[in-house]
Amino acid sequence: MNYPVWQLEFLGGGFLIAVIAIIHVYIAQFAVGGGLFLVLTEHLGHRKNDPGILDYVRKHTKFFLLLTMVAGALTGVGIWFTISLLNPSATSVLIHTFVFAWGTEWTFFVAEIVSLFIYYYTFDRLSKRDHLIIGWIYFGAAWMSLFVINGIIDFMLTPGAWVENNNFWSGFFNQTFWPALFFRTFFSIIIAGLFGFLTASFLKDNELRTTMLRYSAKWLLVPFVLFLASSWWYKAALPPHIEEIIFQKMPQLRNAITIFLACSPLLILGGLIMAIRLPSGVSRTLAAVMLVIGLMYFGAFEFLREGGRRPYIIYDYMYSNAILKKDMGKVAKAGVLNQAKWIRNRTITPYNVQAAGWELFNVLCLSCHSIGGPLNDIRQQVRKNSPEELHLIFKTMGKERPYMPPFPGNEYEKQLLIYYLNKTMRR
Amino acid sequence: MDPVSLIPIPDTIPVHWFWLHLLLTVTTFLHFVAMNIMLGTGFIAFAAPFWRGNDAMPLNAHIAKTLPYSIAFTINLGVAPLLFLQVLYGQFLYTSSILMGVYWLSIVGMLIISYYAAYVYRLIDNRTGMGRLYIGATLLLLLGVSFLFSNNISIMQMPEVWASYFSNRKGWLINLGDPALVPRFLHFIASAVAIGGLAIALYFEIRKRRGATDGEEWIKVGCNWFTIATIINFGFGFWFLGALPEAAYNPATLGGKIFFVLVVGSVATIIPSVAAAQTGRIIPATAWALVTVLLMTLARDILRLAYLKPFFSLSELPYSPQYSPFIIFLLAFVGGIYLVGWMLKTVWNAKGVA
Questions:
Q1: Neighbouring residues of B114: CB distance < 8 A, sequence distance ≥ 6
Q2: Closest Cα to residue A184, out of A159, A218, A152?
Q3: Does B344 lie at the interface with A, CB-CB under 8 angstroms?
Q4: Hey, where are the domains in chain A?
Q5: Is residue B341 part of a domain?
Q6: What's phi and psi for A397, nearest 5 deg?
Q7: What is the rounded CA–CA span in Å between residue B144 and residue B252?
Q8: Structural domain of residue B122, as residue ranges?
């Protein structure tokens, strides 16, 4: 309503943000758990006085640095760029409410970069003690980044009392903050094990390869129990209506639930197989498959978390189409075409019905629906429903269809939008 | 269409705008320094072999080693000013980003490729011949990113061009109608080459002070790049000034007066910097150059306020004070500086000449 709508048709419906976010979060969580993996594996190498393990840590650090520092950091910037293009109003709320949380996270990000560069380039230059301290500083800074970002991400799902009092702390330490923090921490350790498989499977020394694969398997399997416990805690902390949306009311989330449930035993099974002495080719292939399963696993979770917010972008505060819940009455009275800023056809005439319908579609639907794209394709939705059923959908939005916002405009605009959908998207 | 009607309503800020602007200016300055080093040294690494052939390779080996650091810090130090810019000017910045959405998002891909190309350039043994493709790709993409940032700022400051959205809503706007866009971009690039040259001189000066004997030639080379790029930049600077709207430097306004003082101050500080560089006094040259960059950063702030004056002033931002998160941020900031300082000191004391 406040900002122009980026006309992203095929890649709309959340596809762009889903791709960037899932890749980023996977790498970013590796950046946290992987930091712990580095420093504890270095401790292990020193304790066992094993140059093979220490050499492995060095090689793993190189891989870690190239992946997290470049792809991880830049896809993080990518998420920021993407959300500000797709939903600038929500981004603006997050930025203005949490500017100093973002700022604090940035200071940890600086510490991460400096410590990781130093860690990687000073294996031979620093004393054992100082090098390990640098490694711990890296992990501490990375985990604190997670701590801060976790508060902001979960605010979008459960803003709690912030909606009433606009207090920073109410929003930050919201009701899913602590379970989500534990959930993400344990998951980041699991991811460290998954990436450990990958680099360990390339070791040429058979004995060392087996040792490090078994060691990585422990990183996957031991926290898994705690991870499952924190998943249960996370689920239990969700307000009942959000839980209902995720697990019962949203048919689009069923696949994600199935993937999440199916990947748990697959990861455990894969971890157990990796602990067996395997030929290097097999372990490499399996390590790659496990990484993909991990990505699907975490992707499914993120999909569920995002889906749980529907029909809001910030729960109970701002709808996916960027209209504030408190403004719905005002918009209904004045009309969307009158209230939105970036509209050309404010008055509907016989000559601009199509153009005005298109603008309504852009403002109200494009944030969740693609046009012919892989996610939430509006053409498919329209084609599988008769014109009468389409009317029924509009009538039940926000009620029997709780994952869609109620239609915010006036009756005339509703009929115009239905006409536009029937005329344009049914073809 | 009246551009004022298109300007989105801003959200509430949690502390007085002065603090946010102070943070914006400080972090922009830090970002500019890192960006100048990154872009400037990358430019010199690409261009130097055209003059010096393979003789430039020892210099390029050092630049190849440091370029991934400077890219990392440029990006990292760019996050903070982008954050504070969004808090103060989000209603303008989000809009301009959407109007050039395709290009804006492509920046992420361009940065990833350029960053990896810089790493490849670091890791390869032979940086001549085809090896130059890597530094060429890095440089080209970074120049592209710079231009897109200039384009975004140009659109952001000119709500009068926003109505072009209604003829193309897919995010393909390049604001070539802004006469200041090209000189602004060239002014930034020439500054980067100048500061990049000075950074090379400083790098080898520090190595010399720590006992290295291989840097005398490169100190001179760096100082020459600094001097020549600065002289060329006077031309771009005057072109840029000439392309600005009159309101930006109108001496009848307070903003115009401050802008004038800052520009004159920048010229007055860059001259002793060049003089010091040409007489081999690298530390004073660097100190003067940093003052110039700071003054130019402040001039940049004043210029933005002047552009947006018909539409907006910072005092109009809705303000609802909540200072406790700000205090936490300051504590983290100070703690972060201490931690980074400790780490750098530990490395400095531990190693010889790298």
A1: B71, B137, B138, B141, B142, B145
A2: A152
A3: yes
A4: 15-319, 326-425
A5: no
A6: -60, 135
A7: 37
A8: 3-315
The CATH number, out of the four listed (1.10.760, 2.30.29, 1.20.1630, 1.10.8), of the domain defined by the range A326-425: 1.10.760
* B155/B100 Cα distance (integer angstroms): 9
Domain assignment present for residue B351? The answer is no
CB A56 within 8 A of CB A200: yes
pTM as predicted: 0.95
Residue type, A107: T
Q: Which residue of A has its CA nearest to B4?
A: A341
Q: Is residue B350 part of a domain?
A: no
Say yes or no for a CB contact (<8 Å) between B170 and A344: no
Nearest-by-CA chain B residue for A126 = B350
- Do the domain assignments include residue B328? no
Nearest residue of B to residue A128, measured between CA atoms: B350
Architecture of domain A15-319: Up-down Bundle (1.20)
Tell me which chain A residues have a C-beta less than 8 angstroms from the C-beta of B166.
344
Our CA-based measurement puts residue B267 at a distance from the nearest CA of chain A, in whole angstroms, of: 32
Q: How many domains does chain B divide into?
A: 1
Q: Which of A102, A111, A130 is nearest residue B83 as measured by Cβ atoms? A: A102
CATH code for the domain of B97: 1.20.1630
Per-residue pLDDT tens digits of chain A, which is 427 residues long:
899 999 988 998 788 999 999 999 999 999 999 999 999 999 999 999 999 999 999 999 999 999 999 999 999 999 999 999 999 999 999 999 999 999 999 999 999 999 999 999 999 999 999 999 999 999 999 999 999 999 999 999 999 999 999 999 999 999 999 999 999 999 999 999 999 999 999 999 999 999 999 999 999 999 999 999 999 999 999 999 898 888 888 887 889 999 999 999 999 999 999 998 888 899 999 999 999 999 999 999 999 988 889 899 999 999 999 999 999 999 999 999 999 999 999 999 999 999 999 999 999 999 999 999 998 999 999 999 999 999 999 999 999 999 999 999 999 999 999 999 999 998 7
